[in-house]
Amino acid sequence: VSVEAHLLPEPPRDRDSGIPLADLQSPGRVMFEDLVFAEPLLVRMRQLTDEVALWPELDRVGVPRRNRVLLHGPPGCGKTSVAAAFATELGLPLAVSRVDSLMSSYLGETAANMRALFEFAADVPCVLLLDEFDSVGKLRADPSDHGELRRVVNSILQLIETYAGPSTVMAATNSPEILDAALWRRFDAV
Questions:
Q1: Cα torsion through 160, 90, 125, 73, rounded to 10
Q2: How far apart are CA 110 and CA 105, in angstroms?
Q3: Is 134 helix (H, G, I), strand (E, B) or coil?
Q4: How many CB atoms lie within 10 A of CB 99?
């Protein structure tokens, strides 16, 4: 099912600035076969794509969906392109989080913004890409943290763990070494 640009819903906005929390894009033209990447990754991505069509059956028999995917690698290796091709293969819009609007200087607002994005993904079938995920998923033991980061990471852990909506949540990072260890276990595929 393809979604036309003029039919795309409005993504949630930051309550303070009014800036959208994500940029929403119609399914593009780039497919997996247009990308150059290792065969094992192509096979894994195809398996995930094929599995989406089976979600109703999997739900019926109690098999958990694999709808939480972590992409990591150096800048320019194609993480965003893989997410875009995944959305295209499914015929779904790609919602790319905007770090500039997600992060708030107000206590509790960053977690509220993340919750709003997950609620959007629960209401609107899409591929939600949490780009630059390390900016909100840093180690909770970071000595430079002032406490708010720990609360944000705890909130993200709960949001990812309990997410069971119609969308696929993908997170992308260039710095996997600074992600909180508990986040790795919340993803169905890495």
A1: 30
A2: 8
A3: helix
A4: 15
